[in-house]
Design goal:
Shape: globular
Strand content: 35-45%
Largest sheet: 5 strands, antiparallel
Distance between the termini: 59 Å
Length: 431
């Protein structure tokens, strides 16, 4: 086979044109048979292989490996002091999203209201919504997630009323322009994420659905989770990752109607994040943070009790980087970096680093943080105070937006009465 690739001669092609003979023979007048040609070219090829420098081979391999390896940016900024947007939601703020131009932020809450915020002036516009008011023109149950479609300039919100609501912020009305039904009646729609001109939604009916915002129609439904689907994120077209109360996260390849199961958590997975095309994170009620790859169903790295024994309620990141954020009800927004594991790094080293950087090496309930290292490691960075339950973290080029409230997004398991409901802005500081 090697000979065939290099001399282009095949037994079925015994007729050679004069032009092809000139390419292979030093003396055009000399005529060779097919067998002689094969033998001569094979010997020349073997001599070439024998004379190849081994260092050159190793160099080519290293270049090929570097080319195939995805390029990951190393975040170099610090987190600035959070800025809270006052006088907004009357109930817990559950979700937020930001426009690409960073001029507007949208938020949803348990008060059934969606707000549009001006980032510079902090002024707000209230969209329709009222508890149990079916004719209000908006949500009549809690809003659980919001997403903005840049391609169509439309806002999408979902919640406890089992409907996908579409809003047009350009229209001078505070009523939604479309209501899309498809999830089971009585189910809460827990998450929404934009994929071009489509959106994926998740619900307590265990379903993941794909919607077309151009024609306002449901395109497909994906089955797999055995309990309520709690969260969703997406960084690559048609490849969302979801978390569920069935203690698993699942990476979907919707074009082939298949998915990869990530099952390591011991309780509900309440937050997922897609950092890169092959790197994903999940956090749950067990308080553990896991890093996943599409190449394996086992975690590449884990960090137990990441928030001192409190469960992880939200995850955020800088896309295509090694930078991860996590939120909980412990009063801190914590940042992490993904590092390749080296032989000199131990679990105690990571705990020491956590003591220095975050000041929270011990849990509020007395349990000690524990680093479980596999192929990579999650290294704690800084931790900044954020009062309340951090229910969602979204990123833009210059800042992060956190949806903060007195209660968790999907329930009322705890209430922090001294905290405020709303959104806070955390700028990226480049020193």
């Amino acid at each position: 086979m090697v000979v065939h690739k290099h001399n282009g001669v095949h037994a079925d092609h015994e007729r050679q044109s004069p032009h092809s003979e000139d390419e292979f023979f030093e003396d055009p007048a000399e005529q060779e048979g097919v067998d002689e040609t094969r033998l001569r070219i094979a010997k020349e090829y073997l001599r070439t292989i024998a004379g190849t420098d081994s260092n050159s081979i190793g160099k080519r391999k290293r270049v090929a490996e570097d080319f195939d390896k995805p390029q990951v940016a190393d975040a170099t900024f610090q987190l600035d002091t959070p800025i809270f947007f006052p006088r907004g939601h009357q109930g817990t703020c559950t979700s937020a999203c930001v426009r690409r131009d960073q001029t507007r932020v949208y938020s949803g809450g348990k008060d059934c209201v969606v707000y549009e915020w001006d980032v510079e002036s902090r002024k707000k516009v209230r969209f329709s919504g009222s508890p149990r008011d079916f004719a209000c023109g908006g949500h009549h149950a809690e809003v659980l997630d919001v997403a903005f479609c840049e391609a169509l300039q439309l806002l999408v919100s979902v919640g406890g009323d089992s409907l996908v609501r579409v809003w047009d912020p350009r229209v001078f009305t505070n009523r939604c322009i479309r209501e899309l039904a498809g999830h089971q009646r009585g189910a809460r729609i827990t998450g929404v994420v934009v994929d071009g001109t489509n959106v994926f939604t998740t619900g307590t009916d265990k379903l993941v659905k794909l919607w077309d915002l151009q024609h306002f129609a449901c395109l497909d439904t994906y089955l797999g989770h055995t309990e309520a689907v709690t969260c969703i994120d997406l960084n690559q077209t048609s490849r969302p990752i979801t978390g569920s109360a069935d203690k698993s996260a699942r990476l979907w390849k919707t074009t082939q109607d298949s998915h990869l199961l990530f099952a390591k958590h011991t309780s509900s997975v309440d937050a997922v994040c897609a950092l890169q095309s092959s790197a994903y994170a999940s956090g749950g009620m067990d308080g553990h943070l896991h890093l996943w790859s599409a190449e394996s169903s086992k975690p590449k790295a884990s960090f137990e009790n990441a928030h001192g024994g409190m469960w992880i309620s939200s995850l955020g990141c800088v896309r295509h980087s090694n930078y991860l954020l996590s939120g909980s009800s412990d009063g801190y927004l914590r940042s992490w970096k993904i590092r390749e594991k080296s032989a000199g790094v131990t679990g105690d080293d990571v705990i020491k680093q956590q003591k220095l950087d975050s000041g929270a090496a011990t849990a509020c309930n007395g349990r000690r943080n524990k680093s479980v290292q596999t192929k990579q490691t999650l290294v704690p960075q800084e931790a900044i105070p954020v009062a309340g339950v951090v229910n969602q973290i979204v990123e833009s080029e210059s800042f992060f937006i956190c949806a903060v409230g007195k209660e968790p997004r999907l329930g009322r398991w705890e209430t922090l009465r001294s905290c405020k409901n709303g959104i806070c802005l955390v700028r990226k500081r480049h020193d």
